[in-house]
């Protein structure tokens, strides 16, 4: 066990290319801080170094935003209505955050090159307003003013992928209140086309992307916190998805967060699902038993 600050909420793995080590970054929602645990390459970590974030950090993602070969961090500061970018320094530490305005109460961030200029950008959704912000990167670690786009509903989670095979990044947003996900296809210039929504189970708080059935097309995987199940929406390859299939996580469960990986080395993507219910207080592994669902 490695202590962090108060209210640890989200973690990211940050590989240090210069030193060949794996570090951990943990955002602490109650303390308004981020803990950095620098790795020893032995499975152990140094005592935390603490960096100040904005108020109520809710999400963290990784990317090389100044293109120096080192991975940096960006944090959604929910109650500060901004995002904070932490650049990795030559010493292997992280600089103080530089903040950029975003949507009110930013809750989830996704990173990618949305305008095809070779620089990483990010898109942010918040849980109070039905909008998202796109911030285009310059390649030197700074970002332009946010472009505000309507989503039609309040988004809780956002992910990226090329859903129609045109080489441009698209986005998908989980909508908690409307039991759906919305797919917006990228135009390649930093904007997105009209949204198409697809039904999920009840209260989706998270969405992720992977090729579940091995057909070379990206699928959507959504844990439904009030539905006691995980929804899988298989991609058609043109930006649309088939009707959901649901996989139970058991009576009384509240699946909240999910990661996709091949846990049993059979060449198929499996799911690890966290359960936020106080009754169960556990995580589940759902193994993929079919090459084609």
Structural features, described:
It is a single chain. The protein has 293 residues and is mostly beta strands. The chain has a domain at 8-150: YVTN repeat-like/Quinoprotein amine dehydrogenase (Methylamine Dehydrogenase, Chain H, 7 Propeller). Helix content is 0%, strand content 43%. It contains no helices and 23 strands. Strands 1-2-3-4 form a four-stranded antiparallel β-sheet, with no helix packed on it. The protein has a four-stranded antiparallel β-sheet with strand order 5-6-7-8, with no helix packed on it. The radius of gyration is 19 Å and the shape is globular. The mean pLDDT is 91.
Attribute tags:
293 residues; mainly beta; Methylamine Dehydrogenase, Chain H; 4-stranded antiparallel sheet
CATH topology name of the domain at 8-150, in short, is Methylamine Dehydrogenase, Chain H
Please report which band the strand proportion falls in: under 5%, 5-15%, 15-25%, 25-35%, 35-45% or over 45%. Answer: 35-45%
What helical percentage do the residues reach? under 10%
Largest sheet: 4 strands, antiparallel
């Amino acid at each position: 066990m490695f202590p962090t600050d108060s209210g640890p909420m989200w973690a990211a793995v940050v590989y240090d290319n210069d030193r060949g080590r794996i570090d951990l970054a943990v955002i602490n929602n109650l303390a308004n801080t981020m803990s950095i645990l620098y790795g020893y390459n032995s499975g152990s970590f140094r005592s935390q170094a603490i960096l100040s974030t904005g108020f109520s950090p809710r999400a963290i993602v990784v990317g090389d935003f100044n293109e120096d070969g080192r991975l940096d961090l960006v944090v959604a500061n929910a109650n500060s209505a901004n995002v904070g970018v932490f650049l990795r320094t030559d010493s292997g530490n992280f600089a103080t955050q530089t903040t950029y305005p975003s949507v009110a109460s930013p809750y989830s961030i996704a990173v990618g090159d949305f305008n095809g200029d070779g620089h990483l950008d990010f898109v942010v959704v918040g849980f109070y307003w039905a909008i998202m912000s796109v911030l285009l990167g310059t390649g030197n670690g700074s970002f332009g003013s946010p472009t505000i786009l309507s989503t039609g509903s309040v988004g809780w989670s956002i992910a990226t992928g090329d859903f129609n095979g045109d080489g441009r990044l698209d986005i998908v947003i989980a909508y908690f209140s409307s039991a759906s996900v919305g797919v917006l296809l990228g135009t390649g210039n930093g904007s997105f086309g009209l949204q198409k929504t697809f039904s999920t189970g009840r209260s989706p708080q998270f969405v992720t992307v992977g090729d579940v059935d091995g057909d070379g097309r990206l699928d959507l995987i959504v844990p439904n916190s009030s539905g006691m199940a995980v929804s899988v929406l298989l991609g058609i390859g043109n930006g649309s998805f088939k009707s959901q299939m649901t996989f139970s996580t058991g009576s009384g469960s509240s699946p909240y967060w999910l990661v996709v990986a091949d846990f049993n080395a059979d060449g198929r993507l499996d799911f690890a699902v966290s359960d936020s219910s106080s009754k169960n207080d556990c995580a589940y592994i759902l193994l993929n038993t079919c090459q084609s669902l």
